[in-house]
Amino acid sequence: MKLKKHIRDTFNILLQVLDEGHLTDNKGRVADFKNTIIIMTSNMGSRIIQERFDAIKDVETAMESAKVDVLGLLKQTVRPEFLNRIDDTILFTPLTKENIKEIVGLQLKGITKMIEQQGITFDATP
């Protein structure tokens, strides 16, 4: 139950920012958000998106199918007064195995370079 209270408190703080364009802390200091773009992320609905991509091979069809259900889940989960203040919702396609391999390769390249500077040899194979 503590977690739900923290989530509710966080939403209330964000509502103040979205409504009034500023945030006041417990010491009375004000942070201006009037010329700010706020980007919020969540993994809510990620399972739905992954299921659609596993079942439907056409990317656009899978995204359209997932978007309907994910937006429905958002409406069930997030309070309307919060959702009504969000301009747009963007769904991202899941990473493919090739995407993941590329990311891992880039990370390994950086790690290898860093530890080689310390005189350590590192070799990784897929």
Automatic annotation (TrEMBL):
One of its GO terms (biological process) is cellular response to heat. InterPro entries: ATPase_AAA_core, ClpA_ClpB, P-loop_NTPase. One of its GO terms (cellular component) is cytoplasm. GO terms for molecular function: ATP binding; ATP hydrolysis activity. Pfam families: AAA_2 (PF07724). Keywords: ATP-binding, Nucleotide-binding. The keyword ATP-binding applies. Residues 6-88 form the ATPase AAA-type core domain. Transmembrane segments: none annotated. This is AAA family ATPase. It comes from Lacinutrix neustonica.
